Amino acid sequence: MNHRLQAVLDIALPERCVLCGRPLFGCRAGDFALCRYCCGRLEWLAEPRCCSCGAPLVGEQQRCLDCRERCHGFDLHRSAFGYDFRVAELLHCFKSDGIPSLGRFCARALLKLYHQLCEGALLVPVPGHPSATRRRGWDQARQICRCMQQADGVAVCAALRRDRTRHQKELGLVERQQNLRGRIRLAVDPALIAGNSVVLIDDVYTTGATLDACCEALRPAGVVSIYALTVAMDL
Ligand SMILES: [Zn+2]
Ligand SMILES: [Zn+2]
Q1: Ligand nearest to the CA of residue 21, numbered in listed order
Q2: Residues 35-46: what's their mean pLDDT?
Q3: pTM (2 decimals)?
Q4: How remote is the CA of residue 234 from the centroid of ligand 2, in Å?
């Protein structure tokens, strides 16, 4: 949207920052409902980070304690932000209130990582829980991928499908792994993704169990590398 049209819309339909409530006129951080002040206070995760899952390292070298005990299916995961109260509120507003411009915010954060780490990889949205997708009428990871595609023209392939499972939120790590076993499947002709590097896209990283289940479904299709990018890491 051009700046003049945005300025007219800001006066005609005043929009407020989803985090602090201040009117966005004159202090917009971008084409999404966040002010510059709140945007500047979001905490980007910095190095040093685990070379596998991307968790911030405290004293360890290269690999976090968790990744020394178990191998993940992806080659590299990175989150843009830590899951603090601001990011939690932002993702809540995106998913529960369906504020579409926040999808553009998530997309911009992930595109920054995409261009640094996995330029050229095919975007594959992590399929959400079928009942949540049905209730909402849309899926958050697909929506973020769509916004990434609109912003930068990156290719998207919704290659995975998820069968009904219990909600991961209620479960511990071992239960999460069992709950997902065989429940995430390839939904496209393997020839569409064979020989490509892919990057899984999701909103929140918790234990990595969902990403690992996606990798199990993708590896047999002959993908070269599997990266994973999420908006926030909840450790
Ligand atoms: Zn604000
Ligand atoms: Zn790790």
Answers
A1: 1
A2: 94
A3: 0.90
A4: 13
